[in-house]
Amino acid sequence: ASAAWTLIAVAFTVSAGAALLQQAEVSIHPVYFDHNAVYHVVQGVAVVLLYLGFRRSPEDLLDPPPVPVP
Q1: CA–CA distance from 19 to each of 34, 42, 50, 66 (Å)?
Q2: Rounded Cα gap, residues 44 and 50, in angstroms
Q3: This prediction's pTM
Q4: Is the CB of residue 35 less than 8 Å from the CB of residue 27?
Q5: Which end of the chain has fewer CB atoms < 10 Å from its terminal CB, N or C?
Q6: Crossing angle for the helix pair 35-55 and 3-23, nearest 10 degrees?
């Protein structure tokens, strides 16, 4: 797999993790850093990873990884 596709896959995984953290109401501080703040910080990391994945060379994105044949 190319580095671009790997970054994009990691970004979607981090985004899903952020959603799970929000639904589990994980918080660092009950008032100043509640579950919504945790979600937005982790989601911000996911967006940066997604951006970096799409900024990789266009050749990487035009040549997707092969689909395994069962």
Answers
A1: 14, 9, 16, 29
A2: 10
A3: 0.77
A4: yes
A5: C
A6: 170
